[in-house]
Amino acid sequence: MVCCGFWMPLRKSQSREPPKNFKMKKDFQPSQNIRDIATIINELFPEILFRNIKTNAGGFWKPRLLAATAILWMINGETTIVVAFQSAFDILLAVMPGLGKTKASYQGFTGQLAKYQSQLMPIILPHLRNLTKSKLEKYWRIGKWIVVAADGSREALARNKNLQKSFAPSKKKRKKKSKAW
User: Fold this and answer.
1) Rounded Cα gap, residues 40 and 92, in angstroms
2) Is there a contact between 7 and 17 (Cβ–Cβ < 8 Å)?
3) Are 78 and 10 contacting, i.e. CB atoms less than 8 angstroms apart?
4) pLDDT per residue over 27-47, tens digit each?
5) Of 61, 118, 128, 143, which has the most beta carbons under 10 Å away?
6) Secondary structure element (H or E) that encloses residue 87, with its range
């Protein structure tokens, strides 16, 4: 997989080197992508936002790093959550050179995310809500309605009988089997 201008293996068995037939687009500028992602992370999660959260002095997972990893993990299109985490963390290593060549585990990340969730959510949600209102002011409301989300999944499905039958919710109720003693 290519991200931020470098090759990221999807599995441990893959080499860190891109395959021989791999060709980068001529107009692709990895340093610009890294700068863009860094700018977005800095705008979404400014350091001042997390100043009142107390952390362990020697701990690796600081609140801002947790939040940035979580958002990249969430929007990542990988096939499994562990691979998506590793991909998100690899992106952060490219974006935040101060992290060095640190290794992190999915289990450690989720453990720290669970630990700090109660402190992070009351800070991050209002900030993202205000950021959305200020950046997308003319799109915030349509008439008297606030736009929350749009789901195009039904439109993406062809309307033939076989597909509708396959993806339709089941109408059969399951019967509980009684235990015979």
Assistant:
1) 12
2) yes
3) yes
4) 545 577 888 888 888 889 998
5) 61
6) helix 81-95
- For residue 88, give the H/E element and its range: helix 81-95
Q: H or E element: which one contains 151?
A: none
Nearest to 86 by CA among 172, 180, 3: 3
Structure tokens at 165: 């039958």
Signed CA dihedral, 158, 84, 111, 69: sign only: negative
How many beta carbons lie within 10 A of that of residue 85, not counting itself?
Answer: 22
The crossing angle, in degrees rounded to 10, of helices 106-135 and 30-44 is: 80
Q: How far is it, in rounded angstroms, from Cα 124 to Cα 101?
A: 27
Locate the domains of the chain by residue range.
2-7+29-139
Is this model's pTM higher than 0.70 or not?
no
As a whole number of Å, the end-to-end CA separation of the chain is 56
Distance CA 39, CA 35 (A): 6
35 and 64 Cβ atoms separated by less than 8 Å:
no
Please tell me the distance from the alpha carbon of residue 101 to that of residue 99, in angstroms, as a whole number: 6
**Within 10 Å of residue 45's Cβ, how many Cβ atoms?**
23
Q: What are phi and psi of 65, to 5 degrees?
A: -65, -40
Higher pLDDT, 84 or 166: 84
pLDDT tens-digit series, residues 4-32: 334 344 444 444 455 555 455 555 455 77
